[in-house]
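Q: Hi! First time doing this. I have a protein sequence and I read that you can turn it into a structure. Is that right? Here it is:
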Amino acid sequence: MQEKHSQGEPAARVCLDRVAIVLFRPQLPENIGAAARAACNMGLRRLVVVQPADLDRDRMAMMATGPAERLLDRMEVHDDLAQALKPFQYIVGTTARLGGVRNDYFSPREIAARLVDITAVNDVALLFGPENWGLTNDELPFCHALVTIPTGECSSLNLAQAVGVLCYETWLARIGEETPLKPPRHAAPAAPSARLELLFRDWERALWAIEFFKTRRPDAVMRTVREVFFRTSLDWREASLLRAISLETVRYMERKGTPFALP
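A: Yes, that's right. Below is the predicted 3D structure, encoded as structure tokens:
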């Protein structure tokens, strides 16, 4: 499991360069391409395919667009599973079958946490079985650990979906859950009260101009408008844009010569 670190010391992370996706007997080239794309999305760059049914490049590339196609260019292809797994010191098998010959299962998040220490000095294979039946008792003895993905009523995941879940959890163990999402390109301060009051004034004028208050109480409507805008925590640019919409509504009616009355 992940070691605890003293305050100020950077936490250990999964070494993605030591993790490979291994697909055993994949049936569809599209699933190989989609698995390559999922791995590429999460920073994994090693893809191994064993006894594939079809390696149609065009069908694989249809799902592995952009940088993911480079994984297909570097992809290893083997005829024998034991030979393909030789370089790896730790092998994680994926299965939806609980019980049977093995009773120790990890969730994707639990296995990703274990990989933090393991990948410090070891190469790891994330092994996936064929789409129709997954790994069997013939392949499970190769595995140091088994992982199962909790699901709802439908327990059968598409191969690329399963690869995506494992890659995502491995990526989280690499970057840390505390890593913030990318901030907006143009940060803007929150709209001050004076700006919001201008917004409310001009929205009320626009609503009068289109006769929205004909059968409604203006004070009740405007209280609701205020509540909605306050909940959204408008920044300066957003408040300015919404105010411009209301101003342009009145100006448009003036340009068109549409009669309207303001209180």
